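Hey all, quick one. A colleague (J.T.) asked me to put the guanosine-5'-triphosphate job into the tracker so the inputs and the structure tokens live in one place instead of scattered across chat threads. No bug as far as I know, just bookkeeping. Sequence used:
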Amino acid sequence: MNENLVVPAQGPSPPPKIVAAIPCYNEERCIGSVVIKTKKYVNSVVVIDDGSSDSTVEVASGAGALVRGHIQNRGYGVAIRSALAAGRELDADILVILDGDGQHDPAQIPGLLKPILDGEADMVVGSRFLDGRTKSPLYRRFGQRVLNTATAVGSGQSLSDSQSGFRAYSAKALEALSLSESGMAVSSELQFAAGRSGLRVTEVPISVSYEGELKRSPIAHGVSVLTRVTVLFSLRQPLVLFGLPGFAMVIAGLIFGARVLTIYSNTRELALGNALGTILLTLAGLLAIFAALMLQAMKELMRGGAAEMVKEVKEAIARKSPGKRKQ
Ligand SMILES: Nc1nc2c(ncn2[C@@H]2O[C@H](COP(=O)(O)OP(=O)(O)OP(=O)(O)O)[C@@H](O)[C@H]2O)c(=O)[nH]1
Ligand SMILES: [Mg+2]
């Protein structure tokens, strides 16, 4: 423990255990200094090695980090899931996740911990856009805004930085969050999952450095995250995403059908265009309504099944270790 560690006012309870997890894929260049700087603010640092082919693991453990990870590269989303699992494994009261490429400043960790230590939040998102301090390139800001809007509409929760990788999680959040995305869309998925679990989410301003070279095409990245956000939205609100447009298409099909009948009764001619429109719109609409109902049924089944599973696991854990702490 060191003097920079944030601890709440003296009280009867022991100081919280704070763990930092750093997902890394080939970050040998920066990970050593990131670990050393991060150690000043937390009790332990764990590096999640995502199948790096360079010396990330050696550098990280040499700098004093625990290393967990994957034999093969599995993607950022899986690395985040492993980071949350490491937080649970190490019995963290608060888990901070930050990138291993040096873009996040570990000195800002105390700011992320504060809302959780004050009992005001379960998930704290470090936002690059909360105050005007981050000078990211214009195209990045535009892309981020599109992703923020899509994620807010899809998840029903609004954040100024839906794609931030610098976040803190309370023990309650570590237990509640269940994720499935394997790629970069996991940041958006966290917003969906936090809303679903009723977690209190807040943002604090952070700065990010953009000195290194670009790792991926911003367009491909944006499109892939948007696609996944749409899928997440369709699972969360299938009746809105498919049901409503389907219903509108069926109504439009019926209007076209009425026109076909009117034209036929007046002229005894079949209005081919209108007839085709009737068939296409009605069929597409019925298909969308069918998809909405199927997805809604799946969602309810999954929710029931997941709740049942969580209950069973909790009961099994309670039976095995009746005295173990964790709210
Ligand atoms: N790209 C990538 N990063 C991963 C992966 N697994 C873990 N990471 C780590 O996740 C963190 C964030 O990834 P970055 O590629 O830097 O994502 P980003 O910060 O949004 O993108 P840049 O601004 O281009 O750096 C880094 O510490 C990576 O090393 C993976 O499969 N791919
Ligand atoms: Mg980065």
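Adding what we noticed when we looked at it: The CA atoms of residues 82 and 99 lie 14 Å apart. Residues 18-235 form a domain with the Spore Coat Polysaccharide Biosynthesis Protein SpsA; Chain A fold (CATH 3.90.550.10).
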